Hints:
By secondary structure, the protein is of the alpha/beta class. It is 28% helix and 22% strand. It has 6 helices and 9 strands; from the N terminus they run H-E-H-E-E-H-E-H-E-H-E-H-E-E-E.
Amino acid sequence: MIAAGVLGWLIWNGTILLNNPSPAVYPVRGVDVSAHQGEINWDLLSQNIDFAFIKATEGSSFTDKQFSYNDSEAQRCGLRVGAYHFFSYDSSGEAQAAHFISTVEKRENMLPPVIDVEFYGDYNQKPADPAAVKAQLTIMIRLLREHYSLSPILYATEKSYRLYLENDYKECDIWIRNIITEPKLPDGREWTFWQYTDRAVLKGYNGPEKYIDINVFNGSAE
Length: 222
């Protein structure tokens, strides 16, 4: 019992990661961050990563207070940088797209915009109707693609993928979260990015959130 408790604490504390994909297999690595990481020292954080996805917006009105700083500093450090939007089931796809577009500047060499489709609040227990979600998500995808000339990346947990994305949105790359095992999408599709842990501890940030998410790209730097 004591050994199991110690093991559980080491996993929860980030000392032991359930997933630890080989750098030889997945050499291109990056983080995703928000204001929860506080003020980030990008010169320090960028030393061992290749890319960063930075939270920009949520719903139709919320803007992450650290977005502008994180976006400009991550670019200054030579990282490939993209912005992500936390999708709301309570706002229209048109309003959410407009909010993201007004916040995130279109530029050369940017990573595609990301729409984060997962659960929050009461939707954890009572997920939103798939048909209604897909209707608004489809609108947002279309508007972002038209503005940025890039098909958005769709981020999902395996649960939200099965409910809202499976067998659909073939024009969009998938960024999947699985912090226990390497993901296998139920429709046989290949993922492009994999968030393999939410319990990493790196140097370079001092926010209220101790941990940081680490991701791999399913491909090479080229």
